[in-house]
Specification:
The complex is a heterodimer of chains A (393) and B (137). With 393 residues, chain A is an alpha/beta fold. Chain A has two domains: 129 residues, Thiolase/Chalcone synthase (Peroxisomal Thiolase, Chain A, domain 1, 3-Layer(aba) Sandwich); 220 residues, Peroxisomal Thiolase, Chain A, domain 1, CATH 3.40.47.10. Chain A is built from twelve helices and eleven strands. In chain A, the strands form two sheets. In chain A, strands 3-2-4-7-1-8-11-10-9 form a nine-stranded mixed β-sheet, sandwiched between helices. In chain A, strand 2, helix 2 and strand 3 form a beta-alpha-beta unit. The two termini of chain A are 23 Å apart. Chain B has 137 residues and is mostly beta strands. Chain B has one domain. In chain B, strand 1 and strand 2 form a beta hairpin. Chain B is globular, with a radius of gyration of 16 Å. The chains are: A alpha/beta (393), B mainly beta (137). Chains A and B meet through helix 4 and strand 5 of A and strand 2, strand 4, strand 5 and strand 6 of B.
């Protein structure tokens, strides 16, 4: 393969910090985010030639967004694979930039899941429900009352059965995320919690409790990706893309062992491309739709062996100062989760690699390499996995 | 049966019509490919294994074991909201394919991974009969 390392960099970011925005449209949140991310980069509307977006609520979201922003991009990517879409977008933007098709790409997302009253995890076939097979033949799932939570809970149950993983180990993930959220003034929930709080919260879909599940918020943001030539002249030190891997996992005609998730396929691709090892990674942004998602993802990314994730996440390893700090913004479990959270993984990884929190407890000391892994869809049926490895200049 | 069925109904498309016709007769059928000899689930118009076209319907034993499950306590969808707690499960048929289902006719607390189960049918509409699984008798 062509060596794509450092062929593109993240040069601008913006997180729309609102967690509740009943007075705004999704397009307005994206518009405001794009404008501020470009300002962060020191670039303008005229510099952008690539537009990347995904939406749970709108079809043809790329066309809608170009219209709203009054842009005429020469490269449009509407890849929509659930919450991991934006890791796929970064991978695709890297390729497009390396091929010389574009110089500057904007990746953006927004959602009004909270003010819209959307039951992201338990709404069944609602617009934010788990991805159904459409058009038909989706005749073999919805009949049985599938929920997104349920599809993750089934994998959690299987993990417990095979490996002895406990509810208390899963709860450790929520506790660590809340600890990080306590240092993020924008996080929705900031009061520290304990393992007992998590396992004592009501059961949504056995064995997952309320506090094993991500929160529901509004929100959005944007990422600006640029060629090395452009990146060198931007306001911030570039955050380079070293490696990317994309994968889909599904039922495999009824035979796939879904205890292995898409990260099992995408992670080796990203590490091989980046030419780094797991020991080199200073922090990770791991999609935390549910606590089990983190346990399974860390295993299949290769940070620990299959089945050892429960032990791996325990004892504070995931906190800043631990062996592998993850989700230093508080994650989807405590900071924000508008439905497809993958974009925010890129934002916080970039902030960490910029050393934006130096002098505070949120900063991972001397952070040089970060990994982000977005999961979209449901572990129990079909989902995407996008792994990206990012480096400080 | 005239009771209104307020849960989702299947999309009976060309490639799945034979399956639903069989359910109405009380038979669970799955597909096997005559080219590669592999079973597949869910039903579809091609062999998902070798991409051949020589698939045919065969009757499943209707027996299997619970591969994994969850007892669902919250679902906002009408039809299921009234049904909680219910058991959502993946059952591995004796033929080796795993299908989504509900485990019915038992206390949700009694369900466990590896539990032997067998198919049972419920009439939803005059046209549609839906397969579920219950503890093997």
């Amino acid at each position: 393969m062509v060596d794509l390392r450092r062929a593109a960099a993240i040069v601008g970011i913006h997180e729309h910090v609102t967690r509740y925005a009943p007075d705004k449209s999704e397009l307005q949140i994206q518009g405001e985010s794009v404008i501020k991310a470009l300002a962060d980069a020191g670039l303008t509307k005229d510099d952008v030639d690539g537009l990347f977006t995904a939406s749970s609520s709108a079809r043809n979201s790329g066309m809608n967004l170009a219209d709203y922003l009054n842009m005429y991009p020469s490269y449009v990517d509407n890849t929509t694979v659930g919450g991991g879409s934006f890791e796929f977008h970064l991978s695709h933007a890297l390729t497009a930039i390396a091929a010389g098709r574009i110089n500057v790409a904007v990746i953006t997302y927004s959602s009004l899941a909270r003010s819209g009253g959307v039951s992201v995890g338990t709404g069944g076939v609602g617009r934010f429900g788990h991805p159904i097979l459409e058009p038909s033949p989706d005749s073999f799932e919805e009949l049985y009352g599938m929920t997104t939570v349920g599809l993750y809970a089934m994998i959690a149950r299987r993990h417990m059965h095979l490996y002895g993983t406990t509810a208390e180990q899963l709860a450790e993930v929520s506790v660590a995320m809340r600890h990080h959220a306590s240092m993020n003034p924008e996080a929705l929930f900031r009061d520290p919690i304990t393992v007992e709080d998590v396992v004592g919260s009501r059961v949504i879909s056995d064995p997952l409790h309320l506090m094993d599940c991500c929160i529901i918020t509004d929100g959005g943001g944007a990422v600006v990706v640029a060629s090395p030539e452009v990146a060198r002249n931007c306001r911030h030190t570039p955050v380079w893309v070293l490696g990317t891997g994309e994968a889909i996992a599904h039922q495999g005609a009824g035979k796939r062992d879904l205890i292995y998730i898409a990260a099992h396929q995408s992670s080796p691709r990203a590490f091989e491309m980046a030419g780094v090892t797991h020991d080199d990674i200073d922090m990770a942004m791991v999609y935390d739709s549910f606590t089990i998602t983190v346990v399974e993802t860390l295993e299949d990314l290769g940070f620990c062996k299959k089945g050892e994730g429960g032990e791996f996440v325990s004892g504070g390893r995931l906190k800043v100062g631990g062996g592998l700090p993850i989700n230093t913004d508080g994650g989807g479990l405590s900071s924000n989760h508008p439905g497809m959270r993958g974009l925010f993984l890129l934002l916080e990884a970039t902030r960490q690699l910029r050393h934006q929190f130096d002098g505070t407890g949120r900063q991972v000391p001397n952070c040089q390499l970060a990994l982000a892994h977005g999961t979209g869809g449901a572990l129990g049926s079909r989902h995407s996995g996008g792994t990206v490895i990012l480096a400080r200049d | 049966m005239t009771t209104a069925w307020n849960k989702p109904l299947p999309t009976v498309a060309g490639e799945t019509k034979a399956f639903w016709d069989s359910c109405r007769r009380g038979q669970l059928v799955i597909q096997i490919c005559d080219d590669c000899n592999e079973y597949q689930w869910y039903p579809r118009g091609i062999c998902a294994n070798c991409w051949g076209e020589n698939i045919r319907w065969v009757q499943s034993s209707g027996r299997g074991t619970v591969w994994t499950y969850t007892v669902t306590y919250q679902n906002r969808t009408p039809g299921f909201a009234e049904m909680v707690p219910y058991v959502l499960a993946l059952v591995e048929l004796e033929e080796g394919v795993r299908m989504f289902t509900n485990i019915v006719d038992c206390n949700p607390r009694d369900v466990h991974i590896g539990m032997p189960v067998e198919v049972t049918f419920q009439t939803a509409t005059p046209q549609i009969t839906i397969p579920y699984f219950k503890p093997a008798g």
